[in-house]
Amino acid sequence: MRMSVIGCGYLGAVHAAAMASIGHDVIGIDVDEQKVAALEAGTAPFFEPQLPELLAAGIKSGRLRFSTEMADAEGCEVHFLAVGTPQIAGGHAADLRYVDAAVAGLIPYLRAGDVVAGKSTVPVGTATALVSQLADSGATLVWNPEFLREGWAVHDTLTPDRLVVGAEADGAGERAVAVIREVYAEAIAAGTPFLVTDLATAELVKGAANAFLATKISFINAMAELAEASGADVTLLADALGYDTRIGRRYLGAGIGFGGGCLPKDIRAFTARAEELGRGDAVGFLREVDTINLRRRDRAVSLVVDALGGLVFGRRIAVLGAAFKPFSDDIRDSPALDVAVRLRGLGADVIVTDPAAIENAKSAHPQLGYTQSRDEALREADAVVVVTEWDEYRRDLTPEHAGGLVRGRIIVDGRNCLDSDAWRAAGWQYHGMGRR
Ligand code: NAD
Fold this sequence. Notes:
Elements: E1 2-6, H1 10-21, E2 25-29, H2 33-40, H3 51-61, E3 64-67, E4 78-81, H4 97-106, E5 115-118, H5 126-134, E6 140-143, H6 153-158, E7 163-166, H7 171-183, H8 185-189, E8 194-197, H9 199-230, H10 234-242, H11 263-276, H12 285-307, E9 316-320, H13 335-345, E10 349-353, H14 358-364, E11 369-370, H15 374-378, E12 383-386, H16 391-394, H17 399-403, E13 410-413, H18 420-425, E14 429-432
The structure holds nicotinamide-adenine-dinucleotide (NAD).
Nicotinamide-adenine-dinucleotide (NAD) binds near residues 105, 148 and 150.
């Protein structure tokens, strides 16, 4: 099928490349000329495992192209909307200006019968408002929310847990759903559940999924606070809870909390929309989820300060990690970088390292020290903070090796990803989150 993907960021570039890999003829369109030039040259403009291979194969096959011209979307049967929906400046709601601009730019090139499939995460009610904007074009709008995880984006796009498509309950809506079913025919044939809903439910599913995941993370982080006050160990608590199949162990990792380009802004936009709908009380708990999450960053900073006897000014601190999670170079609302910035604000000599996110981190926070080399970061450090659980730190770094580089054997494990016994046995002062 011929399809366009409007917006080629973390979501859109992966979607475009993945759709080409299953045989569709795809044009990715973005307003960012640099990004498009990189993608056209087969270079991934951000770090995402398997994306470079998929891009190269798609471009070589001739089924994957990129452009800055919306006119190149003309003639496609399906148009996926994958532009950003960041948090609005000065508020908690979603900024829909990119969605509006993309739709307005696309309208002149739509033909009757085309399907416009929204993938961006939007507040419930957005799609219904767009339906009237599209009315004269003869195109049909569906909402097909995206659940991919950065770091696993290619895998999640090609083999999703489920596909959700919201459409209006009329003939055009049914035809559009049939088109989307054809787009994903391979995944559906492989057993992926395909759920057809109304537009509002499809929009709500995405917000609700992120609200649930954020709540689960903040729940265990709240337990970490109780563990800290009572002398318990939150990692053992999480293991014990996780064996209960009604609860499950995933998303029960206590630490410095969630961040990135989705969860924080999505739970805020979800709450803001609920308030507009007069149902703010129903999701009032999400404010607490957000607050608990942010409090863990304070906790990580205070663990470092306390471990250094309150004397942080001028001390050298190695910060291992900058990305909001491993296997990504995304630093949007990264708790890792937030901890680094706060320590720097206290006068520490902070040196940050990360396998993928250094360049992004440098441009956002030029005041921090950076090195690509993990060992260089550790050299002469008075304290070490692990804030992104990359394998390079979690699995490959031994306490003996690190001990030979640092000045002070103090480690704060902001992700509870290290073997505390092994580090202590090697003479380190180990501090976890919510652990004795
Ligand atoms: P992003 O900022 O990486 O990418 C957005 C892209 O849209 C940018 O490249 C930007 O240049 C482009 N753009 C903006 N206006 C445009 C226009 N008028 N025409 C064409 N292109 C335009 O953002 P992202 O992380 O890819 O997220 C996109 C959407 O997908 C958001 O709504 C997000 O919440 C949602 N989402 C993201 C993820 C994720 O893991 N990143 C997962 C699921 C859903």
